[in-house]
Design a protein that fits this description.
three-stranded antiparallel beta sheet; MetI-like fold; about 425 residues; mainly alpha; about 5% strand; 17 helices
Length: about 425
């Protein structure tokens, strides 16, 4: 070996060793940066989970008490002279509230004076009279009898029983007087005031009285709107996705449509509400506050999401499936509906459910079409006045009564429960039906 070759090999070895030292020196720095990045990611995840934990803990602490309601036990007399004077039942003009007041006076006979009796009557909800009316309508045999019935207490009594009113405050600073506190304590000690499951929360519509307010009307309104949304948005969205992916020519028109679909998915939801107000209500003439118009607006809102998800599911089907079907003599339509669509269906269903979850939680577009109105009756059809669960939450959150605060949190818990079930369903469908190639 010549001297020049030896010198070149030694120089190359020194150069490689120097490069190795630099790489090793830089490698340690890169590993430290990687560990720092991992620590920052773990910290961010922990902070996010902590905030979620605080949020859910606060929500449960405020809303769990709404699932129970205070009830007062009274001996109510279905007086025939008041309910059926002359032997003919007169429900419309019968003074059921007077019968409830008579039962309260019989429970506290020592209470005299007009003001004292008014305070006594405020211990029981006005729903007690309606409860008596419903009972006598359901069973006329109760006429002339005395029944021991649990009737709903007023909202202030319910708040006191649940510990939300401080009895140590001065009488002028709390909604219950000293006399009322004495009567409540007397009922508690006698076992005639107790808390039970609040079935009215799920069986009643909205009410000005917190103890009678329920979410059934809002749930039915949301249900009808989701029915309209899924019946319109899913078939239209899937058909549009199939056409754009499988049949549409690749030109500037299809590119323009694709860009607009992507832009519509990012449009603020209140814009869809303005569109629904202008088109469906002012032009078409659909009644305001109807689940039908709400479902149409939510269909417009959900349609871009379903189209994008369906197109992604169709793209995920391997081209070899199409080529094999075409090679065996299948037509383009047969390839799409017999081979591509069944394989893309899990992704389509997942996108549809996620889109429906978004529609269920929307309130801004519904406010624009009048679904913010105070609706007491539970809707029975698509054209009846109705509200939705997110709007109901908005209305209760804006109410000054303290008892509505816990019902607001309870309604949020119910809404989050529905959203969790829908998203979990989407995950299960995807895992059960997905195909791997």
């Amino acid at each position: 070996m010549s001297c020049a070759s030896i010198v070149r090999s030694m120089t190359s070895m020194e150069s490689s060793q120097e490069t190795r030292r630099k790489v090793e020196a830089g490698l340690g720095k890169r590993r430290r940066r990687e560990k720092l990045f991992q620590a920052a990611g773990m910290l961010a995840t922990a902070v996010g989970i902590a905030f979620l934990g605080v949020f859910f803990a606060d929500l449960l602490a405020k809303g769990s008490s709404a699932f129970v309601q205070s009830y007062v036990q009274l001996d109510l007399e279905f007086d025939a002279d008041i309910i059926a004077p002359g032997g003919e039942m007169d429900i419309a003009y019968a003074d059921f509230d007077g019968l409830v007041r008579s039962a309260l006076r019989a429970e506290f006979p020592a209470v005299n004076g007009r003001n004292d009796r008014r305070e006594l009557y405020r211990l029981v909800s006005i729903g007690a009279g309606y409860q008596m009316q419903d009972m006598i309508v359901a069973d006329s045999g109760l006429l002339g009898t005395t029944q021991t019935i649990w009737v709903p207490a007023s909202a202030t009594v319910d708040m006191y029983v649940k510990g939300n009113i401080d009895a140590s405050l001065d009488e002028a600073l709390r909604p219950l007087s000293d006399a009322q506190l004495g009567w409540i304590d007397s009922l508690l000690s006698a076992g005639k005031l107790d808390t039970r499951f609040n079935s009215a929360l799920f069986s009643n519509g909205d009410s000005r009285e917190p103890e009678l307010a329920g979410i059934r009307g809002a749930l039915m309104g949301s249900f009808y709107m989701l029915i309209v949304t899924i019946m319109l948005a899913f078939p239209i969205g899937v058909a549009a996705a199939i056409y754009l992916e499988e049949f549409a020519p690749r030109n500037r028109w299809s590119d323009l449509i694709e860009v607009n679909i992507n832009n519509l998915a990012a449009v603020p939801s209140i814009v869809f509400g303005l569109l629904g107000l202008a088109v469906f209500i002012n032009w078409v003439g659909i009644p305001r506050s109807a689940p039908l118009v709400g479902g149409l607006v939510l269909s417009l809102l959900t349609l871009p999401v379903i189209i994008i998800a369906s197109r992604a599911a169709i793209k995920a089907v391997p081209p070899s499936i199409r080529e094999a079907a075409l090679g065996l003599g299948a037509s383009r339509m047969q390839v799409v509906f017999h081979h591509v669509m069944p394989l893309a269906l899990p992704g389509m269903l997942t996108g549809a459910i996620i889109g429906m979850s978004r529609a269920l939680g929307e309130s801004a577009p519904l406010l624009m079409i009048g679904m913010v109105a105070f609706i007491v009756d539970v809707p029975g059809s698509l054209s009846d006045p109705a509200t939705a669960l997110p709007v109901q939450i908005y209305l209760w959150a804006d109410s000054p009564e303290r008892a509505f605060a816990e019902r607001t949190s309870a309604a949020i818990i119910v809404l989050l429960g529905f959203l969790l079930v829908m998203n979990l369903t989407a995950v299960i469908i995807r895992r059960r039906m997905e195909r791997k190639w």
